[in-house]
Structure formats: C-alpha cells, structure tokens
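Let us work through a complete example step by step.
Step 1: write down the sequence.
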Amino acid sequence: MLLYAILLLLLGIVLVMAEAFIPSGGILGVLAAIVLVSSLVFAFKESDGVGFVFLGIVVVCVPAVVILGLKVFPKTPIGRRVILKPSVESPEDRGKAGVSDEDFSQLQGKVGKTATPLRPSGIIEINDERYSAVAEGELIDKGVDIIVVKVEGNSIVVEPRES
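Step 2: predict the structure and record it as tokens.
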C-alpha cells in the first residue's frame, strides 16, 4: 500500500507541474487532484502517521510547484507566445488616440493628386510625398488634382481642384 501511495504522490506532483506548463483547460489539474487524493487515501490506510506526512508533503509541494511554474512559465517558448507583453504606454497616455507629432500645417493650400480613390479617406501625393487624407463632401477618384483645404491636427482635408 505504501508503494502505491508513493507512486501516486509522485504522479500527482508531476501532473501539477504539467498543468502549470501545458494549457489543458484544467483537465490535468483535475487529474492531479484525483491522484493526490488517492495517494492520501492509500497513505492513511497504511497508518495515521504516514497519512499526515503525505498530507504535509501535498500541502507544501503543490503550492510550491504552482508558484515555481508561474515564475518559470513566462520564460518558456510557449509562455512567451501565450502571455501578453506589458504595455509600454504611460498611465497618462492610456486611452488617448494615437496622434502623430508631425506638423502638416505647411500643406494648407498645396496642390497634389490622389494616389487612391478617396472614399472618403485615401492616399494623396504632394511633391512626391504620400499622405493620408480625407475628402471633404464628395468621393474623389484616383488621379484627380486636389487642393488641401484645411489641416486639423494630423488630419488633412482635401477637395477636388477647380480647373
């Protein structure tokens, strides 16, 4: 009986380790719990003293293995793929829209051409530079001459150029 108790205890600890490293949806954890309880049953059948020693081992080893797994798992190849990386933004920037620091105000009144259709947004070219722009009012086809009518932050608003 003691041999069965020892083997089940070792198997239970191995299953707890596997649960920490293998995403199984809790199946390995449930199996580990069943095996560890079975180990305790066999140990208590041997004697109360052996049963309490096994209970102490389970109480110490299972949390230690779980904590060790949580420390080691993020450093494994699977852990690096599964766990999200921490955000690099500061708490002040959290929730703010990403606004470019680039100043497009010098484009006000400039003439260019649409590189893609503007429905209502698309790409324009001014002096061989490409910019993201928005059509004011109507849709503009590709290859149409445009003029920048206003710049609001990093938003460039254009309309077709009158011939």
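Step 3: interpret the result. The longest strand covers residues 145-152.
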